[in-house]
Amino acid sequence: MAKFRLALISMPWPLANRPSIQLGTLKSYLDYKTPDVRTDCYHPYLEVGNLLGIKEYNSIAERTWMAESIYAYLLNPKKRPEILDLIHKEHGPKSQESLPDVKDISTQIHRLHQRQHFGVDWSSFDLIGFSICLSQLTSSLYMIRQIRDRHPSCRIVVGGSSCAGELGRSLLANIPEIDFVVSGEGELPLLELVNRLAKGNLEGGDCPGLLWRDGKGQIRGAGLNQLPNLSDLPTPDYTDYFRELSQQPRLGNLIPGLPLETSRGCWWHRVKSGSVDRACRFCNLNLQWHGYRSKEPAQVASEMDKLAGKYSSLKFYFVDNILDSKKLDKLFKCISGIERSFEIFTELRASVSRRELVQMRKAGVTQVQIGLEALSTRLLRKINKGTTAIQNIEIMKHCEELGIQHLSNLMLGFPTSEAEDVSETLNNLRFVMSYQPLRKVRFWLGDSSPVALHPKQYGIRRITNHPYYQRLLPNSLADSLSLMIKSYIGDRTKQKSLWRPVAHELDHWQRQYESLRREHFSAPLLSYRDGGDFLLIRRRNPGREMESFRLRGSSRAIYLFCETRRTLTKIHRQFPRFSLDQLQTFIADMVEKRLMFQEAKQVLSLAVNEEPHRVLCDPEE
Ligand code: SF4
């Protein structure tokens, strides 16, 4: 019997230097589950990367609206003037980069697809699947239309983070070229769809996670269908990506990083009786999943070993929303046990301890994104982040010390934030200027995030799709699709002016940090060297002499004891010969000098060890 042929496509704009984990995972899962399916993966984003060059490609890929505009220009010729206007607006007058010539880029891309993809015999496939995640809406709609125009009998399924729940249902309801939607994670619904199509019997009863139109044009299906256990997942198969990459001459020097998932969902995001009971209020990253599942550490380490060996790459991107805090220690010990010098990127919560971070650094974690969001505990409570400002400052400090690059955000303009939140932020910013700066990110309303689900609590009167979609899509679609990025009527104008001083401070921090690091090379900007019975602390300042401080005897010991956050009670227990008042006087002096940070009863020393190898080699860590 001929094999069922499935094509999986990932259109621009994922970053070109990594394969699609969605495609790689589905391919390996289907191969493992059924010998009767042959899956071919296509990564047209590689060809577009080759066409534009990696720098220009990634510069577009990193800006969602810019990325969506390129294919909207092809998809929707009537709206070209509006699209060009949007691009000018998005580019902004202060941008350092030159304005992309959208007309020229879109024309080149269209010709590329004409040469490379329109001629493929798509009708030889029994099913064609598109993975639609961030910035892939217009590019996927463009290719779906092109394929269906040429091969009207092709069956098309879409899935990915932009197709979960109502988003996917609205795509199916409004775009006749789409035949099926996989809502939520893809393995089980896609396998079921393939089996039904192979048997020629779609009507095999409902299959959670799979939506389709029945003979009367009614949408059938709902819900999610997910693997009970991630140990059922084989190692992702990136063969097709690497084969395609080898055919792109301009990307010949690229050594791709390998995406890997150690878990799905988020343990902080908790649903009780059908509604979100606990989660970060802005977050909609968990629409695709119910509950949290993680792989066993040994499985992750073995996958890394296999993938590194097969593709000769050492860079890994953990794509998890959140690592499993209960398995963290074991996970990174298992990874350290492999004789390969990995470089790992992962997302983190600020609650990760210094000991865990040291373990991660030893295993090869060199880059992280920490879910910090704010430097005001008052605001963190409103966001329901479950962390505090001192925790955030502590992890920023440890990253600085261990040489871990962190690309973390400070969110401006969260609805209902108040002057007190801003002033707490401004105050706390003074204590972190010697650490890597946070990126300025304005709050945006995500579909089905807790804020969107409870708008009144946040002073929001009306929610619509973001108006940019009106410029990108035909009016009929922009009005009727349920889309990821929302706009709202609420307190936006007030928030913008409230947060202006913080935006200004963040720009200043960025400039100052970059210039000081250039001047002082690898030296941390606030650091210490330990003399055994005294401590030398140095602060490198912009445009003036370096400040030095010497702490002797007990002052040194207290300062080192507060290397991690300590409560006053613990400090007192450790140094009982001092009264609480004496300790508080010493700490207040250190805070005044911005050498320590205090929040309520917790205290943290801010200077980092100038010799991080001592921390990494310390058997106690
Ligand atoms: S922001 Fe991160 S920690 Fe918060 S709910 Fe979303 S995934 Fe979970």
Plain-language structure description:
Helix content is 42%, strand content 18%. By secondary structure, it is of the alpha/beta class. A seven-stranded mixed beta sheet has the order 2-1-3-4-5-6-7, with helices on both faces. The chain is globular and about 85 Å long. It starts with a strand and ends with a helix. 43% of the residues are buried. Iron/sulfur cluster is lined by residues 266, 268-269, 279-280, 283, 285, 321-322, 349, 371.
Summarize it:
With 621 residues, this protein is of the alpha/beta class.
List keywords for this structure.
single chain; 621 residues; alpha/beta; seven-stranded mixed beta sheet; five-stranded parallel beta sheet; 24 helices; 28 strands; globular; binds iron/sulfur cluster
What hetero molecules are in the model?
iron/sulfur cluster
The structural class is alpha/beta
Got a strand count? 28
Average residue-wise pLDDT: 94
From the spread of the alpha carbons, the general shape counts as: globular
**Low-confidence parts:** none
Number of helices: 24
Q: N-to-C terminal Cα separation, in Å?
A: 59 Å
Largest sheet: 7 strands, mixed
Task: Itemize the secondary structure elements and their pairings.
Elements: E1 4-9, H1 21-33, E2 37-42, H2 44-52, H3 54-61, H4 64-75, H5 80-91, H6 102-116, E3 127-131, H7 137-150, E4 156-159, H8 166-174, E5 180-182, H9 187-199, E6 210-213, E7 219-220, H10 239-246, E8 258-260, E9 263-264, E10 270-272, E11 275-278, E12 293-294, H11 297-311, E13 315-318, H12 328-336, E14 343-348, H13 354-363, E15 365-370, H14 377-383, H15 389-402, E16 405-406, E17 409-412, H16 419-429, E18 439-442, E19 445-446, H17 450-453, E20 462-465, H18 468-472, H19 475-480, E21 485-489, H20 492-520, E22 526-530, E23 534-539, E24 547-552, H21 553-561, E25 566-567, H22 568-574, H23 580-592, E26 596-599, E27 602-605, E28 608-609, H24 612-617
Parallel strand pairs: 1-2, 1-3, 3-4, 4-5, 8-13, 13-14, 14-15, 15-16, 17-18, 22-28
Antiparallel strand pairs: 5-6, 6-7, 9-12, 10-11, 19-21, 20-21, 22-23, 23-24, 25-27, 26-27
The structure holds iron/sulfur cluster.
The site of iron/sulfur cluster (SF4) has 11 residues, from loops.
